[in-house]
Structures are given as C-alpha cells and as structure tokens.
Description:
The chain is an all-alpha fold. It has a domain at 861-973. 73% of the residues lie in helices and 0% in strands. It contains 44 helices and 2 strands. Residues 1-48, 57-62, 155-166, 176-188, 237-242, 289-304, 856-873 and 923-927 have low confidence and may be disordered.
Amino acid sequence: MAKVWSLIAFAVSFAASSITLQAETYIEERVGEKLPPVIQYSPENGVLSLIESNFFLNHRPGKLSKTNRDAVRRYERLAKRYGSLIQDANKATQGKLETAFEEAVDVYIFFLKSDYISQHEDKMEKLRDMIYKLGEWVYLKEKEPMKRNYVHTLYLSTGLSQPAYLGDAVAKLADKQKDAPSQFRSSIDILIYYNLSSSSSTAKSARMIFNKKTKLDRYEKAIVALIDIERRLEVGEDLISGGKGLDKMNQRLLAINRSTQGIRAPGLRWRINHTILYLWLRLQKSVDWRRAPLVEVREGGKQLIAPLIERIILEEVQDGQLRKGLLTYKNLSNAFRSSPVAVKLDFRYLQIAQMLNDKNKRYEDLALVYNELVKRYEKPNPQYQKISQSASRKIFLSYRKMIRDLQDKAIESKDVALRKRAMLLSREFTNIFKSLRKDILEVKKNLAQLYSILGLHKEAVAEFIDLAREDPLTFYRKASDSQRVLANWPPQPPWGKLPAGNKAERVTLIKIYSAIVGAQAKAQQNISWADLGHLGLLYRVTGQFSNAEVLWSKALPSAEPGTDANGAAGLLLAAYFKQKRWTDFINLTRLCEVRKILPTLEQQVLDMKKFYQVALINRAQVYSKEKKYKEAIVDLEEVVEKYPNDPKRQNILVEVARLYQRLGELTKALVTVRNLVDQYPNSAVSKAMILEAGAWGRDSKDFDILEKTSELYRIYIDNFPNDPKLTEARYERAKILIALKQYTLAAKHLRDHALDKRATTKERVRSALTYVNLERLYGEGNKAISDVIPVIKLARIEFGEENYVLAHTILAQAATEKLAIQDMKREEQILMQYVEKYKEVGEALGFLRFSLAEHYEYEVPFPNRPFGIEEFRPQIESIYKVFQTIKTAYERVCTPKENKYCQNAYERLKQFGQDSLDAIGAVELSGNIQQSMEKVLRDFQQEFLQKVEKDKSKFDDLADKYRIRNERLEEGS
C-alpha cells in the first residue's frame, strides 16, 4: 500500500523518483521546447496520490503476479488486447471488459508494491490510462447498482480529474447502505469523502462514519496527519509560517516520519518521505535541502530531495521568475554533480535558459549555458558514463538547433546586429564542436553565408573551402563568389580591360577556380567555360599565361561557340602571333573554324583571314630554313588557294616552285612556274622565274621535264621579244629541242641566236657552230649555213680550243665547198696544228686536201698519164694517204643516204677508188702497198653498200653518235 502511495507522488512530481533509473528516462525529454504544464500542488492534489494508492491496495481484485517479470509479461499481453477492446468497446462483451479491467488493476497494484516500480514508470502511466477508460466502459455496461457504484468510484479515483465528484460518489454509496462502514475497505475511503465532498451534508455523514472507525494503522495515521497539514497550508499558510505554527508543523512532520520508519515496503516508505519533504519545502519556501529535519534526507537525500526542489523551482518559473529559477537550477545541478540526477537537473537548467531566451532574445546568455554544459560533459562521468555520454549528445543537438534557428532568422532578417550576433555564436559553436564535423556541416554552411552577407569575405572563403571537402563543386563556387570581392574580380570573365587588384588575392582565386575545374572533371561534368575563362584570365593577369595556354588549349577542341570560348581563343591567338609560334596559331585558327568559334580580342572580332595568311607564310619560311620543304610547300599552296587576289601571290608561287626544285620534284616545280606564267604572263616575276626554271630543267634527261622547260622558254621568247636575255632563252631552248630531236626548230633558234648581235661573240659563235652541225646532219647542208659563216669566223682560241677547232673545221669545209683556194690553204695550216689531238680535224683536213689534190694543188699525176714507175712512186703513196684520210672522215660523218652531203661524199670516194685502181694497174708498186690499197677499197665498197642499202639502222646509230659528239664539243666550248 505504501508503494502505491509513493508511485502517485512520484507521478505528480514529474517522475522524480526515476533518478535512479537509466539516463534515457530524463534525456528523452524534448530539450529546447517550452516546459510542460506544471501541476498546481493544491491540498487535494498534494496527498491525493496517497488516497488513490490506499484505495487500490485495500481493494485487491484478481490475482497478483508473483514476480516482476511475470507482471511485465501480463502487461504486454494486456497492452496488445487493449487497443482492439477500446476500438470496438460497443461490441465487446461485459465479461471481456471486466476481465481486462481487473487485469489492469491487478498489474497496477503489483507495480505499486514492487521494489522495481521505478523501472516501469512508463508502464504505470499507460496502466492508469487503461484503468480509466476500461472502467468507464464497465461502469456504463454494469447493471447492478452496487457494483456499478464501486466501478464508478474506482474509475473516478484513477482519473484524479474531479476529486469533488469522487467524494460525492462515495457519499452516495454510503447513504444507500445501512451499515456504511462495512462497505468501505479502509478509513481512507471515509477520508476521501471527508476531504473532497462538495456539500456540508455529505461531509457531516463522512465525519460520522469516520468517528465510528477507530482502528487506524500507521500508514493511515500518517495519511490523516499529512492531509491535515496540507489543508492548513492551503487555508492558513501565512498564519503558521515564520512562527510557532511553523515549528509545530515541522515537529508533526518529524513525528510522521518516525511513525513510518517501521513500514517494511521500502518503496512505500520512500514515497511517504517524499511527500513529507514536499510539504516541508512548502512550509520553508526554501530549496536548501540540507536544512531538512529528516535523517533520511541528510544521509541519502540527494536523490530524494532533488525532484522536490525542482518542483519548487518550476513553481517559480511558472510565476515568471525565470532568472531566479535558472540560477537555482545551476546551483542545484552543481550540488548533485556526482549523481545521475544532475543530468535531469542540467536539462531543466537548459530548458529554463531557453525559456528565458525566448522571452528576452539573449542568445549570448543561452550560448553561455550551452558552453557550460558542453564543457561539463566533455569528459563522461565515470560513475554514470553511459548517462553522461547520452546527455552530451542531447546537449549538442539542442545547441545545434538553437544555433541553426538563430542563423535562419539572421539570414532572413536585414538586421545587421542580429547577423553579427548569429555569426559570432556560430563561429564559437563550430570551434567547440569541430571534432563533430559531419554533425555541424549545416551550421558551417550558414556561418559561411553569414560571413559573406556581412562582408567578411576572407572568413567566408576559408569556411567555404573547408566545406568543399564534402561538396567541392557547390562550396568552391561559393568561395569564388567571396574571393572575387577580395580580388576585385568581376562575376563574368573580363575579356576586355582587366581590372586592377591584389595579386595575392588573385592567386588565391586561381586556386579556387582550379579546384572548381578539377571537381567538374572528376565528376565527369562538362567544364563551364565561364570557370575556364576566369581561371585563364587570372593566370594571365598574374603572369602565368603559360598555364592559361595549357588550360584553354585543352578545352577549346570541345568548346561550343560563346563569349568565353571566343575570348580565350582570341588571347591565345594573339599570344601565339606575338611569340611567332606559327604552328600553334595555325592549328588553333583551323580549330576555331571547325568549331565555329569567333576569336575576339578586347571584345573585338579578329580578322583571322589576314593573320592566318601571315602565319602560313611565316611558318613556311621557318620550315624552309629547317629544310622541311614539303611542310613549307603545303602551307604556301594553302595561301595560294585561299588568297587568289593577294598581291604577294606571285612571290608565293615562286617560292613554292623553288621548294619543289629543292626537293628534286622538277615536274611539280615547272608546273608551278607554268601556273605563275599563265596567271601573270607579262610580270617581271614571271619573266625572271622562267629563266630560273629553265636552268633547273634544261639539263634533265627526263623527256617530260625537257618539254615543260622548252615550253617555258617558248613563252619567254614570245612574251619578251625585246628582253636582253632573249638570246639566252633562244639558245637554251635550242639545246632542249635538240635533246627532244626537234632539230628544225632547234636550228632556227640557233641561227637567230647566232645572228643576234645582242648576244656575246662567244655565244653567237657557239650557236653558229651548233646550227651548222644541225643543218649538215638534218637540214639542207652547206647551202643553209652560208649566213652564219661570218659569225663562225669570229671564233677565237679564247672561246675554247674545241670550239675554235670546230669553227675552223667548218670554215675549212665551207672553203672546200667554194673551192676558195686561199681560204683552204689558210684553214689547212690552222687545222694541221690539231690533227693529232682531234679526230674531227682529220675529216675536214682530208676533204680539204682531197679537193686540193683533185684540182692539182698536189702535183700528183693521175694514172691515165703514162709515167715511169719509180718516178711516180711518191705521188701514188700520197694518194694512198689521202684515200685513208677521206675514208676515215667518211666513216665518222656519214649519215643515212638521204643526206645530200653523204651522197656527194660517196660519189667522190667512188671516183677516187676507181682512179686508185687505175693507178695500181698502170704502176708497178711494192706488194704491200698494192695489196693494202686493193683490200681497203674492196672493204670500203662492201661496207658502204651494206650501210646504205641493207642496214639502215646502223646509219641511225652513226647519226646518234655524231649528235652526242657534237654535244660534247658544245659542252667543252
């Protein structure tokens, strides 16, 4: 019974007895909200729990559980059935409701008597609720008046909501019975009626019944005494406080305390003392528990007295004395520091501080309370480690909630002072809990935002960078917003004029943008060109343009047209052009064309066509110096193709041709020159280039190259008839035409060159000599060379010995043709000097001597004259020598019989042979001479006939040999 009373007292005092329980009982309270409504401790409520406990203990329905474990199991089964019973109470049978009702009361009573009551405080509250509601339904369905009245009384006593009505119910029950005392289980029932009756008549009846009840146990006597004290406090507290009345009350409380010491149930005795202490505190109006005149309080009273003191404090709080309550709680929690009760007191202390803050908005004071508690629970108390650890976490969560709420208000508000306060408190909070990084991220985010709003950009940057460890993209970008202010850097990349600013701050901004770009790449996102623009421009303004170059050059291949990509491309191109990095310039220009990027410089679109041309030409020059002719040609040909109207185009074509020539690709070189000449036929560049290209191809053995070279010379001759170098072009083309076997056209050019007095004498002589040879071999022979004989006569030994000899050979032949005896003799004298060195001289000299002999210049009588043998022997031998000379010359110069000169020579030789035969027949010569002459003549005749009539191909070979010989002679000249 005593345990029942003590449980109700415990419930009234906010579960104070659970101080010895696990810490979660206290910590589960929602810190940070307003305190729950405080129960007003009137006289009725002060001891009403004792009355209720007595009622239950005197009325013992059902069977009590034997063990705490058994009671818990019964409670759990009951809890499962309870919901469905209440939900369908109208359908439930009377028996089911009564069974559940009795079961709930039975378990409730067991918990009241149990030493483990404090472990099941939550279950006690739920059981009381079950009894209240189940009792209501049983009462409504009960038909028997007596039982119904009993249930009604039980139901009302459990509710504790209408104590006066409870007294009336007991009175009605008593009036209906003749033997009223027998209907009550104890004198406490009468006391209920006596104290709670709302009418004087029922109160009188109750006193009469009570007077008949003379035997009271110690517990009942204690209740009666406590009821009396509480009634006195209610009606006359001012009369007894501070005087003898107060001392008398204290003595009565001591007497009640002594009278209950023998109660065996420890829980019941503890609750009696609990109520005694409460009344004593009400008498004293003091929270100094050390003054309490109770032995049990002094010995172990911390756990007992703390909740009672707390009740007094809460009354002060309810009265609006928050500061006083706050200070009291602080002192109280310090006094109970070694006990788990300190946890609950600390949280009450915090709750009051929160209430005070809600009233006056002194966030700094509340933060001091939090900091005090944080420091207090920094190291768990070894006596209740688990409790203190959990409390520390709850304090942190509450503290964080307060800070975040304050931050939200400050961010939304325009009050600068509030923002500063929020910033300072947030900074203090993050410094305290920096080890709980994940738990304070939201606070740090808001703190960084507050820094930024307040203009504390350096602090904001540091905070955002720290937060970027969790979310690089988001917070590095926010850091960049603040750092731009410090660096005086605009929100958009400044592609125009760069603003002035602190270099160190801009270096920091570089690091931030580098981190942003890196985070985007790591996340495999498309890198923002705005970020690339900022980063590159910052590199540039801090003297690190090489880094900007690397950054932009990697990004541009995938860039889309836009202001930032255009600006980056423009700056890169400008730098490449200035540094003469032509390859980079060209590659980037081509890339921009493909990506449709319009490079800009200082927000002006660049004329890339012009700069691109310059870059191509300059790179070609570099390639040429490095002997990379193919690469140079590619660049220059692109210029030629893309810039058809450029004034430098002629020079570029010239350079392309020269590069082809250096590569050894003469065909392409000559084609290029021909293109130049076709497009610019009368230009000085074309004129000079024809001569240069002619020098490249005139000595080639390739038929195609020779033809192209010849055609270039033809164009020169046609387009520049008055040019001083026309003679050179004619001669060179003639040589090429000879190689191409176009002898007639070659002879024409040689004749024109020989007769052109603008050419040097040496050149004229050379052309005349070649012309004569061509005419003799392929033309009209000596008839066509008469007009160049005057030129040949100009030959001098200084022009070259071979040419000199050749000239006099021709002159000798010409003199022979004309039978100019004096000229023939003069030429004979000149040629005699070279007969042994040049075989060609023998040919001419032989014909010359033959002619002289034929016309009796050699005094040699022919055989038709009868002379003696010995007398004519020398002449015959001379004839033989002449024959040998002529034969040798004929073999060297004779060409196919179509050649008139060759036919004439044949006739002459034939006649000479006949004459020789006649001479041999008329003169008796030595055997050797005769045999030799006969053999030579026979062989000659046979060979000649074969060559001319049967084997024409051999004559062609002889003609080729003659042509080659003449070329060697010309080269030697």
